[in-house]
Design brief:
Number of domains: 2
Number of strands: 14
Strand content: 35-45%
Strand order of the largest sheet: 9-5-6-7-11-3-2-13
Helix content: 10-25%
Radius of gyration: 19 Å
CATH class of the largest domain: Mainly Beta
CATH superfamily of the largest domain: Glucose Permease (Domain IIA)
Order of helices and strands: HHEEEEEHEEEEEEEEE
Distance between the termini: 41 Å
Shape: elongated
Number of helices: 3
């Protein structure tokens, strides 16, 4: 199993402590630290993903459960009305964030904030977050990475001017978090609240083309 390099500072010390406790024969302590190392390695796992092909497909930006889908009219980074998808990531989910479409990164904006539980409404506006604006074939989309009670760090892999492919990793959030995705009305959604999704694999929508339902 491939493990993200960011997890090294978590699982390696725990593994070293587990090995060190074996020397004096402290089996219980060694087992506890070994299990902790395994838990960190599991959390930072980096499974291989082969995104489905198709220029009109919109992919999930993260693993997790769709908390809600709601309409919006006043998101300044997205032209016209559209729909907002909120995805909650539990500690058992892969925590990489992926680009929903082939895109150019227009803006990256980090905002310090609070640490409300990621599933609460306050998290969207008040929690520590990292926002990205992506220029795509369907128009600009807005993606917001947010940390929650357990998550305290956001890693962003891209900067303005970078070009990314659909399903490409663009960030990582540590220990339970949430992603809000704002899509224009030109995208027809194919998911519903409560559904489980996988980043870079689950098709969450499709770009409406002229002459196509």
């Amino acid at each position: 199993m491939k493990v993200a390099r960011e997890g090294l500072v978590f699982w390696l010390p725990a593994l070293i402590l587990a090995a060190g406790l074996l020397i004096p024969g402290w089996w219980v302590g060694s087992l506890l630290f070994f299990l902790l190392a395994a838990a960190f390695a599991f959390f930072f796992r980096d499974p291989a993903r082969r995104p489905p092909a198709g220029p009109d497909l919109v992919l999930s930006p993260a693993d997790g459960q769709v908390l809600k889908i709601e309409s919006f009219t006043n998101q300044p980074e997205v032209v016209g009305p559209g729909q907002k998808i909120s995805i909650f990531l539990s500690l058992l989910d892969v925590h990489f964030t992926r680009s929903p479409l082939a895109a150019e990164i227009v803006k990256v904006d980090y905002n310090p904030g609070k640490f409300f539980p990621a599933y609460r409404d306050e998290a969207s506006s008040q929690n520590e977050s990292n926002s990205l604006v992506l220029a795509t074939e369907a128009g600009q989309i807005f993606l917001k990475q947010m940390v929650g009670v357990a998550a305290r760090r956001i890693k962003c892999y891209v900067k303005p001017g970078d070009r990314v492919q659909a399903g490409q990793k663009i960030g990582l959030m540590y220990f339970g978090s949430r992603v809000d995705l704002f899509l224009p009305a030109s995208i027809k959604l194919k998911i519903s609240p409560g559904q489980k999704v996988k980043g870079g694999l689950t098709i969450i929508g499709e770009i409406k083309n002229e002459g196509k339902d």
